[in-house]
Structures are given as structure tokens and as C-alpha cells.
Design a protein that fits this description.
heterodimer; A: 124 residues; mainly alpha; 3 helical TM bundles of succinate and fumarate reductases; 5 helices; 81% helix; elongated; B: 127 residues; 4 helices; 0% strand
Chain lengths: 124, 127
């Protein structure tokens, strides 16, 4: 049994069922990514095409590793929210819409975790 | 309502009635670059996974990313990234009601397009 009143349960949630959570998270990750993109892309672009030993050495450094992990987590969260909006806008019909929304969530979590795992394995 | 003929009605949005504008172009490109960056991001994750697996697999991933095909995708992703970032800042400013005036929004469209190309060239040159 819930002690919340009906009014308290629904206030602020609106037709999307999760209120402004999607909107706010999209913007928070966007602001974080402005910084993370610069910090991640420059060392990454520098290391693409370098030798195996150089790459392992570069990403064994905690600063590079932490930035790469933070970038992957934030980027895939932002990507998941962005692709979700695109699917919601263009894909209609219950089957494909739900199938793609589910696939999007699983895809972004899978690749986000893979990125974090790979960097952790290199760094440790 | 089930027997109403809906087949011949015009459907919204009437995309063909709009004439081309810069703000429309950057808005569409924001979406296209966002979706397109999925590919670049997946390639980058694959490269890291290969590096974490061992030298042999790393050579394979490195060969793909540094082939002409890989370079085209990486430089394309780089432009998409800078465009999406610059235009994203524009969207964030709009959220706090800055730069929404028609003339200003059109000017910042050009700024974002030019800046994204310059940043791409700069990134390729300095690394």
C-alpha cells in the first residue's frame, strides 16, 4: 500500500511518464560531452596509427584511461537518448517501434560497457 | 470512424512545401550527424577492444582504421562530431533563450558550418 496521494504520484510526470528526465539527461550529457569530446578525441586521434606498445602505454596512463571511460559512458548515454527520439519520431506501429527502442537500449549498453571494459583492461 | 476513407488525404508534415533555409539544413544535419556518429563510436570501441585483446588483433583493427576506407570514416566522423558539438552548443543556448532571433539563428548556422570544417582541418593537422 502506498502512502503517496494520487496527486503526489503524478505531479510533474506528464504524458511521457518520466517527466522531464529524458530532456534534462540529454542536456546534462551534452554539456559534459563538450569537455569530454575535446579531452578524448585529441589523444585518440594522436594514437590511431601508432604502434601497439605506444597505444598501450598511452592508455595505461590514468588520465587518458579515466577520460576515455567517462567519454564512453557519457557518449553512449547521450547516443541512447538521441536515437530513442529519432525512433520515436519516425517509426510507427507497435512491433517495429518497440523492437527498435529495445534494440537501441541494449545496443548502447553493450557497446558502452565494451568500451569501458576494454579501456579498463588496457589500463590495469 | 472505421469506415472513413483516409487514403487520399494529405499527410502531415508537408515536407515539399517548405523552401530551403540554412536553419532547416543545420537542424537536419544535427540529426544525421548524431545518428551517423554511431558508426564512428562503434569503430572506436572496436579499436579499443582490439588493443585490449592483444598485439595481433590490434594490428587487424589498426589496419582497418588506417586504410583509406577507415580514414574516410574517421575524418567524416570527426567533422560530424565537431558539427554536432558546435550545433549542440547552439541548441543549449536556445534552451536558455539566447540566439533565437531569425537573423541571428541564420548567421549562427553559417558559423557552425564553417567552424566545424575548420576544427576538422585543425584536428587533422595537429595530430
Amino acid at each position: 500500500m502506498s502512502f503517496l496521494t494520487d496527486r503526489k504520484r503524478v505531479t510533474g510526470l506528464g504524458s511521457a511518464k518520466d517527466g522531464t528526465h529524458h530532456f534534462v539527461t540529454q542536456r546534462v550529457t551534452a554539456i559534459a560531452l563538450i569537455v569530454l569530446v575535446i579531452l578524448f578525441v585529441l589523444p585518440f586521434a594522436y594514437n590511431v596509427g601508432e604502434s601497439y606498445d605506444r597505444v598501450i602505454e598511452a592508455y595505461s596512463h590514468p588520465i587518458n584511461a579515466i577520460i576515455a571511460m567517462a567519454f564512453f559512458i557519457t557518449a553512449f548515454l547521450h547516443l541512447k537518448l538521441g536515437l530513442q527520439v529519432v525512433i520515436e519520431d519516425y517509426v510507427h506501429g507497435p512491433f517495429w517501434r518497440n523492437f527498435l527502442l529495445l534494440s537501441n537500449t541494449l545496443f548502447c549498453w553493450l557497446f558502452g560497457l565494451t568500451g569501458v571494459f576494454a579501456v579498463a583492461k588496457i589500463a590495469l | 470512424m472505421a469506415d472513413v476513407n483516409r487514403g487520399n488525404r494529405p499527410l502531415s508534415p508537408h515536407l515539399s512545401v517548405y523552401h530551403f533555409s540554412l536553419t532547416m539544413f543545420t537542424s537536419i544535419m544535427h540529426r544525421i550527424t548524431g545518428v551517423g556518429l554511431t558508426l564512428g563510436l562503434v569503430l572506436v570501441v572496436w579499436w579499443f577492444l582490439a588493443a585490449s585483446t592483444g598485439p595481433e588483433y590490434f594490428e587487424t583493427a589498426n589496419a582497418v582504421l588506417t586504410s583509406w576506407f577507415g580514414i574516410v570514416i574517421l575524418v567524416g566522423s570527426l567533422w560530424a562530431l565537431w558539427f554536432h558539438a558546435c550545433n549542440g552548443i547552439r541548441h543549449l543556448l536556445w534552451d536558455v533563450i539566447i540566439g533565437l532571433e531569425k537573423q541571428l539563428a541564420q548567421s549562427t548556422s553559417v558559423v557552425v558550418l564553417v567552424l566545424s570544417v575548420l576544427l576538422t582541418i585543425l584536428t587533422v593537422v595537429i595530430v
